[in-house]
O-acetyl-ADP-ribose deacetylase (Arthrobacter caoxuetaonis), 175 residues
Amino acid sequence: MEIALVTGDITRRNVQAVVNAANSSLLGGGGVDGAIHRAAGPELLEACRKLREETYPGGLPVGEAVATEGFGLPARWVIHTVGPNARAGQTDPELLRAAFANSLQTAVSLGASSVAFPAISAGVYGWDARDVAEIGLRTVREHPGNGIETVEFVLFSDPVAQVFRTVLADLDSRD
């Protein structure tokens, strides 16, 4: 599985699935979540409302993942996952690992060969970018792939991208 690090806008990536760092309501928000909802269009919000009504009336649990169509995005699917919120006391690294792992499993179940991840929980949820990079990159590298050929980490700023580059180089040097 090829891993690429990209600085830019995840909503413009030409991949089969983009991962949305969603909140548990699935109804949009700020950061990556808001950007994905705006770019995908109102159909995404409607699909998420339907998921809430039919499957997740209490909201999507932290670490879980669920997919919708991509609607107005170049990506065919949006995989919504809820990362842990360190500012709310959710500091267990296993919750963050689960968000990455369950997103990958959802991509496999969809048959996606390419996936773009944001830095889940590194923004407003207060996780340190290095911790997110280590957990995210390690989880992707340990995943068997099962049809996923490319995973992109689409990072919102140069400083966060540099952290991911450093962590990836450290992981490569250990192999």
